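Late entry, evening session. Most of the bench is empty. Finally got around to the prediction I had been postponing all week. Sequence below, unchanged from the version circulated by S.P.
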Amino acid sequence: MKYFWIQLVLIVGSVSMALVFIRTWSQAKNRAWKRIAFSLFVVVNVYAVLRPTDVTWLAHQLGVGRGTDLVLYVMVLAMGFLTLNTFLRFRSLEKKITDLARTVAINEGMRHNDERLGAEPAAGSGAGADAAANADADSVKA
């Protein structure tokens, strides 16, 4: 009974994280394995809070001195995964922004060139349209 309050706080925290994740489920563009891993992580957290002696037993079976050390090691791995995932997502977004900026620059350059020459830009033709089509195709793939 002396662990009841901390268990309650930790379980409410884990369930809150799960609810936030579920509420943004349709907005998240995560792969299925990330969703499964996160759900499993929440379930394991709740179990570890309710049965800390089992975590200690598992730690001893794995050659770790204490259950808290095992939890710390798992958290370090999870943080590394989160950091790598965030880095890769930002790198992907930066590439998309660069491609978009190039497409806009090409389209603007073509429009200004056509205006300078006094010609009406032909809809759907020229390098700008090709770049825009490539950008559209890339956005559909993503």
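Two things to note before I forget:
The longest helix spans residues 67-117.
Helices lie at 4-23, 32-50, 52-61, 67-117, 126-141.
Will write this up properly tomorrow.
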